[in-house]
Amino acid sequence: MDKEQNHRDDALLWDAFRRGDEEAFELIYRTHSSTLLSYGKRICPDHDLVKDALQDVFVEIWKRRENLRDLHTIKFYLFRVMRNRLTLLMQNNLTSYGDDFPEKNEDLLSPSIDFILMEQETITHQQTKLQEAISSLPSRQREAIMLAFYEDFSNEEIAKIMGINYQSVLNHLNRAYLSLRELLTEITLLLSLFLSYSFQKILF
């Protein structure tokens, strides 16, 4: 199914949700909750706080459904709201997170990613190394890489989700790319594909 069709389906589903259709709300939750939970865990070390943020997001959008704007991409919207809500909760424990505290995006409701790599046994070791390398990146570089590669958001969408400008996204991706090249000495096909894809994001 192409993106245009996905956007049409999202628009219809969102419209039903805004009218109070509980089945539409449940479908939105089932479709996106696990991905949002995984995303939250990548930017916040307190997984209980991530779960609280996720619950708050869906409670809040249900309460405010009649006043929410039209949209075409539910996933993109929920990622932004989830990030803002988690940022707000983390703000209460700012000293606990240091550099991992995300930049806040002010223009939304106050406030997954299941990163499944190729499963062939022959590249299990490389998968582990790649995951370890990504996990070792600074939080904003790690988040940008995850949104770009695993969730396939455009650079413009990443900028809006993270609450930063377009050039900052390019900078984060470029630094992440260079760091991964230094961290990973075993350049396999998997790594080459990953870095090639990431580099295209940097250029475009």
UniProtKB/TrEMBL annotation:
Residue span, RNA polymerase sigma-70 region domain: 28-86
Source organism superkingdom: Bacteria
Gene Ontology process terms (BP): DNA-templated transcription initiation
UniProt KW Transcription keyword: yes
Entry annotated with the keyword Chloroplast: no
Ranges where the RNA polymerase sigma factor 70 region 4 type domain occurs: 129-178
Keywords: Sigma factor, Transcription, Transcription regulation
InterPro entries, alphabetized: RNA_pol_sigma-70-like (IPR039425), RNA_pol_sigma-70_dom (IPR014284), RNA_pol_sigma70_r2 (IPR007627), RNA_pol_sigma70_r4_t2 (IPR013249), RNA_pol_sigma_r2 (IPR013325), RNA_pol_sigma_r3/r4-like (IPR013324), WH-like_DNA-bd_sf (IPR036388)
GO-annotated molecular function: DNA binding; sigma factor activity
Annotated Pfam families: Sigma70_r2, Sigma70_r4_2
Transmembrane segments: none
Record's signal peptide: none
Family to which this protein belongs: Belongs to the sigma-70 factor family. ECF subfamily.
PANTHER family, per the entry: RNA POLYMERASE ECF-TYPE SIGMA FACTO (PTHR43133), RNA POLYMERASE SIGMA-70 FACTOR ECF SUBFAMILY (PTHR43133:SF46)
UniProt cross-references to NCBIfam families, sorted A to Z: sigma70-ECF
Protein's UniProt name: RNA polymerase sigma factor, sigma-70 family
The species this protein was found in: Pseudarcicella hirudinis
